[in-house]
Recover the amino acids of this structure.
C-alpha cells in the first residue's frame, strides 16, 4: 500500500521490516509461541502457574520456541525470570516497540496473551489465540472461534496449547475462522480519506 505521503510510506515500510533478535531458529522446523502476560490480576500464583506451564510445554514439545517480551513491572519480571530463564528455547525479551511486536505476531504459530488489543489483532493475522483470563471484554473473538479462554491454570494452558500443536484440524479451524473485528484495512482507508481531504 503506497499513499504517496513520504512520512506515512516510511512508517508503513518500517512496520514491514524484519525484527532483529538475538536468537535464530528455523520457522519451518520450529513453531513460535508468542506470549504476553502482565495484567495486575495475574500477579503472584497465576503468573507462576503460567510460567510453569510454559516450561512444561517446551520440555514436552521439542519443536516449539517460546518468545515472551516481559513487562518491566517487578511483579512480572521476578517470577518470569526466576522460572523461565536459562532455557535454550525460551526467549525472554525486553518490551518491544509496536512494529516489532506486530512482526513477531506474523511469525507466530499461536499466541498466548492476557491483552485485549492482541485479541483483536491476532484474528486479522489468522493466529489462534489462547486468552490467559477468566473473562474477556471481547467475546466476539471467542464466539467466532479465533480465540479460547484458558485462564491461568497450568494444566488447562498445557492442554489447550498441545491441542493446537497436535491437531491440524483444530488449528486450521481457528486460523480460518476470520476476524469479527473487521478486515484489517481500516487504517489504510483512514489514511486514504485523510490524504484525499488535504
Amino acid at each position: 500500500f503506497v499513499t504517496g505521503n513520504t512520512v506515512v510510506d516510511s512508517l508503513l515500510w518500517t512496520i514491514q521490516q524484519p525484527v532483529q533478535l538475538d536468537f535464530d531458529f528455523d520457522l519451518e522446523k520450529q513453531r513460535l509461541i508468542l506470549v504476553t502476560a502482565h495484567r495486575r490480576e495475574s500477579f503472584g500464583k497465576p503468573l507462576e502457574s503460567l510460567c510453569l506451564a510454559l516450561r512444561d510445554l517446551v520440555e514436552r514439545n521439542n519443536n516449539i520456541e517460546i518468545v515472551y517480551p516481559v513487562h518491566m513491572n517487578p511483579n512480572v519480571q521476578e517470577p518470569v525470570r526466576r522460572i523461565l530463564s536459562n532455557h535454550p528455547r525460551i526467549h525472554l525479551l525486553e518490551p518491544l516497540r509496536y512494529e516489532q511486536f506486530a512482526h513477531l505476531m506474523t511469525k507466530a504459530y499461536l499466541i498466548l496473551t492476557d491483552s485485549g488489543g492482541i485479541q483483536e489483532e491476532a484474528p486479522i493475522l489468522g493466529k489462534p489465540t489462547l486468552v490467559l483470563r477468566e473473562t474477556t471484554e471481547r467475546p466476539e473473538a471467542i464466539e467466532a472461534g479465533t480465540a479460547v479462554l484458558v485462564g491461568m491454570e497450568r494444566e488447562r494452558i498445557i492442554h489447550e496449547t498441545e491441542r493446537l500443536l497436535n491437531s491440524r484440524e483444530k488449528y486450521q479451524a481457528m486460523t480460518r475462522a476470520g476476524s469479527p473485528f473487521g478486515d484489517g484495512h481500516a487504517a489504510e482507508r483512514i489514511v486514504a480519506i485523510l490524504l484525499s481531504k488535504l
The beta strands are 31-36, 64-69, 90-93, 110-113, 129-131, 147-149.
